[in-house]
Amino acid sequence: MKLEVRVPTLSDSVASGTLLPWRKQVGETVARDETLVDLETDKVILEIPAPASGTLVELRQPEGAVVKADEVVAVIETGETLVSATPAEKPVQPAAATPVTPTAAALVQKASVPLPAAPTVIVIPPGESRREPMSRLRQRVAERLVAAQHTAAMLTTFNEVNMQPVNELRQRFKAEFEVKHGVKLGYMSFFVRAVCQALQQFPIVNAAIDGNDIVWQGDVDIGIAISSPRGLVVPILRRAQTLSSAEIEAAIADFARRARETKLTLEDLNGGTFSITNGGVFGSLLSTPILNPPQSAILGMHTIQDRPVAENGQVVIRPMMYLALTYDHRLIDGRDAVQFLVAVKAALEAPDALLPAD
Question: Annotated catalytic, 333?
Answer without folding.
Answer: yes
